[in-house]
Amino acid sequence: MIEIKISPLSNGEFNRGVFATRDIAKGELIHEAPVIPYPNEEHEFIEKTILADYVYEYGKNHTAVLLGYGSLFNHSYTPNATYEINFDNHTFDFYAYTDIRAGEEILINYNGEVDCNDHLWFMDKD
């Protein structure tokens, strides 16, 4: 249902994104990304690495590295996908927010809410 390809939207070192290999219906589960959580006080160590741009808040006291394709979704203020944290399964579950066509890049809002237009950390980078 999804694959990793070169993304025209990514300005990062790896320029990757997640793309649909078939049409995906609104509300359909796209991906369940397992997490490796760690306490927030350990984040100072992660901030010294490239992983700092790829982690997610995981509840009030933890941050998480997402496995699978979880950390490869690119950002949009008009996303076609969203995610929910599934604490019982220790996954981030990505769902189609709109119908997504085969070949289309799957985008999420990094702010966590589809309609949140808050400024993001990477917008200040050169």
Characterization of this structure:
There is one protein chain. The protein is mainly β and 126 residues long. It has a domain at 27-96 and 108-124: Beta-clip-like (Beta Complex). It has one helix at 43-46; strands at residues 2-6, 16-20, 29-39, 55-57, 62-66, 74-75, 81-86, 91-96, 107-108. The strands form 3 sheets. It has a 5-stranded antiparallel β-sheet with strand order 4-5-3-8-7, with no helix packed on it. The longest helix has 4 residues, at 43-46. It starts with a strand and ends in an 18-residue tail after the last strand.
- Low-confidence segments, given as residue ranges, are none
Gross geometry: globular
Would you identify the CATH architecture of one domain? Beta Complex
* Cα distance spanning the termini: 34 Å
Let me know the number of strands. Answer: 9
Tell me the name of the CATH homologous superfamily of one domain.
SET domain
Sheet with the most strands?
A: 5 strands, antiparallel
Q: Rounded to an integer, what's the Rg over CA atoms?
A: 14 Å
Give the overall average pLDDT: 92
Beta-strand percentage range: 35-45%
CATH class annotation of one domain = Mainly Beta
Number of helices: 1
CATH topology-level name of one domain? Beta-clip-like
User: How would you describe the oligomerization state of the chains in this entry?
Assistant: single chain
Overall helicity: under 10%
**Order of secondary-structure elements:** EEEHEEEEEE
Organism: Paenibacillus spongiae
Pfam families: SET
Protein name: SET domain-containing protein
